[in-house]
Design goal:
Layout (H helix, E strand, L loop, with lengths): L1 H16 L4 E2 L10 E10 H12 L2 E3 L10 E10 H9 L3 E6 L2 E6 L2 E13 L2 E10 L10 E4 L4 E4 L5 E7 L4 E7 L3 E2 L1 E6 L8 E2 L13 H4 L1 H4 L4 H9 L5 E10 L2 E2 L8 E8 L2 E4 L1 E8 L2 E4 L3 E7 L2 E4 L3 E7 L2 E4 L3 E7 L2 E4 L3 E7 L2 E4 L3 E7 L2 E4 L3 E7 L2 E4 L3 E7 L2 E8 L2 E4 L2 E7 L2 E3 L2 E7 L2 E3 L2 E4 L3 E9 L4 E8 L4 E9 L6 E9 L2 E2 L4 E13 L7 E15 L2 E14 L20 E2 L4 E13 L1
Parallel strand pairs: 3-6, 7-13, 16-18, 18-20, 19-21, 20-22, 21-23, 22-24, 23-25, 24-26, 25-27, 26-28, 27-29, 28-30, 29-31, 30-32, 31-33, 32-34, 33-35, 34-36, 35-37, 36-38, 37-39, 38-40, 39-41
Antiparallel strand pairs: 1-16, 2-4, 5-6, 7-8, 8-11, 9-10, 9-12, 12-14, 14-15, 16-17, 42-43, 42-51, 43-44, 44-45, 45-47, 46-47, 47-48, 48-49, 49-51, 50-51
């Protein structure tokens, strides 16, 4: 098996090494746009905004690049953007173009390539030399020297020395040297010339792509990405290329060498793990895939996938998927899915799905689904669903659902539901909301801005009843207790119920109510269950005080024999005029009347 893997790896490694990458993108020409504007004692940041609006493009830069409160005085008439930037920053800032962006980079220093040895032979090209600071003459260490088309690179040593070897037939080799805080420089080496070459003006020097270094900062990535690769990314932040194939044993042992993080591949095979710019086809790894940019189509790893851009298609990992951009398609992980952007996907995790943006689609997790913004779709979790903003769709949880915004969802939970504003339906033992125009069904429904009513009533069976009503007009809970104080016919009762208010006007409403109660008749030996439906006409005399009353029908079931009640307790609960049903079930008409406070 090991032999087969080695053969497969070497095959793809050799094929990929033979590929010549072609850089993507065409010049955008935003730097050549002519601008006209005036700035009088304006901060740099405002002047850049003014240039963006005038030229219909955007600037991308690190906030620490310059003092944004520095004041600028300019009177510009039909001047190219490049010239304006040179005047503002006095040549200390380098720029590259990517789509509709101009990327600003601190580059106050200048460097050059000084060849030492240039050797040409059949299918062999060997170049060595030094990268030198043109102002100080000092050798520059840890500078990147690379050939863009052949995707070969190296870092200079502590003495600024580099050595590169190229195989194959090449009419020319163009070396570029890059270093953080320096402007890039390039030299062309012709195959039939072995003397020191002249400088080369790279036509792509102002073109680039916006690549985030976010994945390098993740703890899970730091362990696998070498310091040399991180330095390479700082030195060459905006270059990338496309190739059909890539093969890696580990991020440091790749068919593209240290340039692997600058390459987007159609097919990527990583025996243990790989580190690339992105995938536009298929990528598979024994343990992990690390991608600086986007992933499109299918990505699978035995342990984890990390994408610095967005994922479109299928992403599957044995343990963990981490996406810094958006996710669209299907995402599954044995433990954890983390998406910093928006999700439009079918998302499954053994433990937790964590989405920092909006979520649309389906989420299933063994423990938690957590969305930092809105949710529109279906959620199911073993413990809970947490949505920090508005929620629409269906939420099912073994323990509880929490929505910090408006919930127009169907919330179903084993213990509790909470929504800041409930406009949907809640089903749980406990339901909570700050305000509600929806419906809550449970043992206790508490709405902060809803019903908190106390009613005192009497009926044909129990003299005094006190009830607490919580919820809203759509559906409210009733928790009540009652007692008859007769010397010879005592009854104590405890129960719960549900009601709905049919509101006709501010002062007039009708309330159908259904309740279930236990009657205590002096001992706990027998089951005495009374189910009661009543229809109350409610008249509000003034705010906080309402009169109510109406007919009722009682349905009674008891396994107590005649005369089983304790002394001084009511012996005959069922009135003489009643309806008999099968078994011990009896029914009768009654009445109810009382007052409601608050």
């Amino acid at each position: 098996m090991k032999t087969n893997l080695s053969v497969i790896f070497l095959f793809f490694f050799s094929v990929a090494s033979a590929q010549q990458a072609q850089t993507t993108g065409s010049a955008q020409r935003n730097l050549s746009r002519l601008l006209s504007f005036t700035a009088k004692q304006e901060p740099v940041s405002q002047v850049l905004d003014k240039m963006s609006k005038a030229g219909d493009f955007y600037f991308a830069y690190n906030g620490a690049l310059f003092n944004q409160d520095s004041l600028v005085n300019m009177n510009i008439r039909n001047v190219p953007v490049r010239t304006v930037l040179d005047q503002m920053f006095q040549g200390k800032v380098d720029y590259k173009e990517s789509e509709n962006y101009i990327i600003l980079r601190y580059a106050v220093n200048h460097l050059t390539i000084e060849p030492e040895t240039i050797t040409t032979a059949d299918n062999l090209y060997l170049i060595s030399g030094y990268v030198v600071d043109t102002q100080t003459g000092r050798k520059v260490k840890q500078a990147s020297v690379y050939e863009k088309r052949l995707l070969q690179s190296t870092l200079t040593d502590d003495n600024g020395y580099f050595r590169l070897r190229f195989k194959g037939e090449h009419k020319e080799v163009i070396l570029t040297a890059s270093k953080e805080t320096y402007r890039d420089t390039a030299l062309v080496f012709l195959a039939d010339i072995t003397i020191k070459p002249e400088s080369y003006d790279d036509p792509d020097k102002e073109n680039g792509a916006i690549f985030s270094n976010a994945i390098e900062e993740l703890g899970i990535s730091r362990f696998f990405i070498s310091s040399a690769q991180r330095i390479q990314n700082l030195n060459i932040p905006n270059f990338f290329a496309n190739t059909p194939f890539q093969a890696s044993l580990t991020p440091g042992l790749s068919s593209h060498g240290m340039m692997s993080s600058r390459v987007v591949n159609k097919f990527s095979l990583n025996v243990i793990g790989g580190y690339t710019a992105g995938v536009e086809g298929f990528e598979m790894a024994g343990l992990f895939n690390l991608n600086k940019g986007d992933v499109k189509a299918l990505q699978a790893a035995g342990a984890f996938n990390v994408a610095g851009g967005s994922v479109t298609g299928f992403q599957i990992a044995g343990l963990h998927n981490d996406v810094r951009g958006n996710t669209r398609g299907f995402q599954a992980a044995g433990a954890l899915n983390v998406v910093k952007g928006n999700v439009e996907a079918f998302q499954i995790a053994g433990i937790t799905n964590l989405v920092k943006g909006d979520m649309k689609g389906f989420q299933a997790a063994g423990a938690l689904n957590v969305n930092s913004r809105g949710k529109n779709g279906f959620q199911i979790a073993g413990l809970g669903n947490i949505n920090s903003r508005n929620s629409r769709g269906i939420e099912i949880a073994g323990l509880g659902n929490i929505t910090s915004g408006t919930s127009s969802s169907l919330q179903i939970a084993g213990l509790f539901n909470y929504a800041k504003k409930n406009t949907g339906f809640q089903l749980a033992l406990l339901n909570f909301s700050d305000s509600s125009t929806g419906t809550s069904l449970g043992l206790i429904n508490l709405v902060q801005d809803g019903y908190h009513k106390i009613s005192i009533s009497t009926n044909e069976l129990v003299q005094t009843n006190v009830a607490l009503k919580t919820g809203n007009a759509n559906l409210y809970n009733i928790l009540f207790a009652g007692k008859s104080y007769s010397d010879t016919a005592k009854i104590a009762t405890l129960g719960l119920g549900f009601g709905h208010d049919v509101i006709f006007s501010k002062h007039l409403s009708l309330a159908p109510e259904l309740s279930f109660q236990y009657l205590y008749l002096g001992n706990w030996k027998y089951s005495n269950i009374l189910t009661k439906f009543q229809l109350n006409l409610q008249i509000q005399l003034f705010k906080g005080f309402t009169l109510f009353g109406g007919p009722s029908y009682a349905y009674y079931n008891s396994d107590a024999p005649a005369g089983a009640s304790a002394k001084n307790y009511k012996q005959d609960v069922v009135p003489a005029k009643h309806h008999s049903f099968s078994g011990n079930n009896k029914g009768w008409y009654g009445w109810n009347a009382g007052i409601t406070l608050f």
